[in-house]
Amino acid sequence: MFRLACFALLTYSLAAQTKVDPARVTRLMQRATVIDLHDDTTQMIVDEGYDLGKLHDYGQVDIPRMRKGSVGGIFMSIWTDSDRFTPTEAVRRTLIQIDGVRRETARHPGDLELATTADEIVAARKRGHIAILMGVEGGHAIDSDLAVLRTYAQLGVRYLTLTHTNHTPWADSSAPPPQHNGLTEFGRQVVREMNRLGMMVDISHVADKTFFDALETSAAPVIASHSSSRAIASAPRNMTDAMLKALAGKGGVVHINYYEGFLDNDYAAREKALTELQKQQDAVEDHTPKFGDRSGNGPAVRKIGAARIEKLGRVPLSKLLDHFEHAVKVAGVDHVGLGSDFDGADDEFPAGMEDISKLPNLVGGLMERGFSDEDILKILGGNTLRVMREVEAVARKAK
Ligand SMILES: [Zn+2]
């Protein structure tokens, strides 16, 4: 009896110490269709000739690191700085980036293929390829013209973030003060046209009122491509519990953003205090040519980013896991996904999630917190495939 009891005790303490069986993580990643809804690598591809095929010691995304992270699909963000480009210039800059993503994808036919639907992501995965998708970040890039929106859809863009940090002439962003009290009538037309085109309506970055207006207007579920939880970190573009519940109520998915400033109030305050570094970064960015010689400001900006992370240290992975856990608790496990924001926030990602190759750490962390394999599969991409299919079904019905 005594020996048996001892054995039982030993097994228990071993289980408590060995956090997660790495083989369980590997098995799960092989089964999963991992989809990341928001990555800003496009700017580096277009401005610096960044080659996705090579392993880099900077940035967060390339093919070798996506392979390590078992990535099945990734949405390349097409973003245009509204401070530097007029909306009309933004259309050209958007087209340049779409062309950049398509060419970079075609350059790596053994690893990448362009996808525009859930089925195409699954098919690419079956062929051993990583599916490349596109989302336009910021409604200013349609220059208030539905014809431009339709053209983006034809070129393969599958979501539009209604605003970036700036208000558009038809939608309020989360930057105060509001201008339109949410969506204007034209803004509602944009949402309805997106429904018809099978583009996902993305509410990351918008004002709370814009979010509720979009939700009310959209015939299809709505997504947040890269948003975290405001109950944990008070960034105005994070989602309140009421928003999480409403999004889930309509079948949507919140894809959690890993950027440290949206995860942790303390980090955000310390980062804000580094005004000198921010000034340096702004000065560098101001001198980047808009078009033509796009040699880019990347190396200089990255140097400033490295100085920032040295001063601030990294937020622990547990903080990111808190956001996943909270979103699941409030919205439900069928409504949470991945929206890293990699290459969109310098180097400011949690310890253990420094780049896209580190996804197994996130999976291990979720397992430690008691998530079942089936639930983790949903978060890694199952929920995204489901919401894409629902958006596609609404578009088919509208035709
Ligand atoms: Zn963003």
Could you explain how this protein is built, in words?
There is one protein chain. This protein has 16 helices and nine strands. It is an alpha/beta fold. The longest helix is centred in the last third of the chain and has 26 residues. The structure holds zinc ion. The site of zinc ion (ZN) has 4 residues, from loops.
Q: Assign the CATH topology.
A: TIM Barrel
What is the assigned CATH homologous superfamily? Metal-dependent hydrolases
- The total strand number stands at 9
- Give the second-level CATH assignment, the architecture: Alpha-Beta Barrel
Largest sheet: 6 strands, parallel
Query: Taking all residues together, what is the mean pLDDT?
Result: 93
Order of helices and strands: HHEHHEHEHEHEHEHEHEHHHHEHH
Structural class, by secondary structure, is alpha/beta
Principal-axes geometry comes out as globular
Strand content: 5-15%
Radius of gyration: 21 Å
The helical percent reads 40-55%
Query: What's the CATH first level?
Result: Alpha Beta
Low-confidence spans: 1-17
Measured between the Cα atoms of the first and last residue, the distance is 72 Å
List bound small molecules: zinc ion
